[in-house]
# Entry
Amino acid sequence: MKQKPAVQEGSTVFSWRRGTRATASAQAFGELLNAIGGKVDAEQLVSLAEPKESSIHDAFEWDNKKAGHQYRLVQARYYMRSLHVTTSEDERPEPALIHVKTQEESAFVTTEQVKDNEEYIQSALSECLRQLMGLRKRYHFIGKLRGVWNAIDQAMDQVAQG
# Structure
């Protein structure tokens, strides 16, 4: 059984989502993202990883015969989607970054930044509802989930009404 990381009060522990294939430390990724302000896109993450001294350099494939820059961008997005954070001993790990799309940008930002920005909240809400509708479409035939589908409909109505 895997031991839960010891979390000291006020400290932040980063971990990879279950099943993530990563060669670099989640803690190194998280601390690097915190150091740059918690907002990053794939291009920026690859640039941060490029110096050989970077704590996340070895997570990326740098042999261009094996993989070019586009593949490294795919790797960067994978890591950004997979990074989780735990901020206190009682909390469950949650995604450290959320992808948001606004008229001006498309980037991964920290959940704290989403909570403090109405445009980011609307983007996250739209994505959440899109995913819920996808689940409903995929599994509508399961009668035991009828209450869940009704709750999704109610949530959609509430959002539509503002």
Observations:
- The CA atoms of residues 125 and 159 lie 9 Å apart.
